[in-house]
Amino acid sequence: MELDPTRAKWTQISTEIERRIDAGVYPAGSRLPGILALCGEFSVAQVTARKALADLRERGLIRTENGIGSFVADA
Fold first, then answer.
1. Which end of the chain is more exposed for a tag (fewer CB within 10 A), N or C?
2. Angle 14-31-29 from CA coordinates, rounded to 5°
3. Residue-wise pLDDT tens digits, 28-62
4. The pairing of beta strand 69-72 with beta strand 62-65
5. Cα 16–27–62 angle (5° rounding)?
């Protein structure tokens, strides 16, 4: 996925991950790719990937377990 340079990168990543959750690419309970994998996929800095995950967490779409990773929230 190529990011639109006119929009905040973290919002685009958050939207894409949400789309993947809705499409079943990441089903409930599944582990999301780690920060470094997201950085590589979207060519962004770690702070940007973390902000995207924080947005998803705040909206209740994912949960994060420290030292383990982020998971799609159960429906």
1. C
2. 100
3. 999 999 999 999 999 999 999 999 999 999 999 99
4. antiparallel
5. 65
